[in-house]
Amino acid sequence: MRIMAIDYGDQRIGLAVSDLLGMLCGEAWTMNEWDMERASKRIAEEAAAREVGTLVLGLPKNMDGTEGDRCAIVKEFMAEVKKAYPEVEVFFWDERLSTVAATRSLIEADVSRRKRKKVIDKMAAVFILQGFLDSKR
Question: Quick one: which of 98, 84, 91 has its CA closest to 3?
């Protein structure tokens, strides 16, 4: 079964799905959706179509490790996804520096600021997924 990582944002949602062996990221994309219920249903459909058995949602903790308002929103979103796709196993992943790491990676690859804005969310999802996959080895 595949693993899907989600980087939830207010305007865009980054998604990354592992290969069948759960070792590497197989694909990544960005979903533009502002409505939580519609987004959760779309993610459930994408996960079912790709035979995803595990969802990993980035949890945006504060730098001191505490959970703020944003974490509550992310947990509410995951509850909506779980309602739409109940057979999936769910994990939260500390994503404090995933966007920073993704941004650095894109800057090092000399990606322009304009292009970075279009891909940063899916890159953050890739970092979340790879961190989770590495922790399972």
Answer: 91
Residues 124 and 15: beta-carbon distance below 8 Å: no
| Phi, psi for 63 (deg, rounded to 5) | -60, -25
Dihedral of CA 37/83/49/57: which sign?
A: positive
What are the CA-CA distances from residue 97 to residues 31, 36, 67, 102, 106 (Å)?
21, 24, 15, 9, 14
Q: Are 124 and 14 in contact (CB under 8 A)?
A: yes
Name the DSSP letter for residue 87. Answer: T
Backbone phi, then psi, for 116, in 5-degree steps? -60, -40
Q: Give yes or no for a contact between 43 and 56, defined as CB atoms under 8 angstroms apart.
A: no
Q: How many residues does the chain have?
A: 137
Residues with Cβ within 8 Å of 101's Cβ and at least 6 positions away in sequence, in order, are 127
What phi and psi values does residue 54 have, to the nearest 5 degrees?
-135, 135
pLDDT 10s digits, 36-55? 999 999 999 999 999 999 99
Q: What is the pTM of this model?
A: 0.88
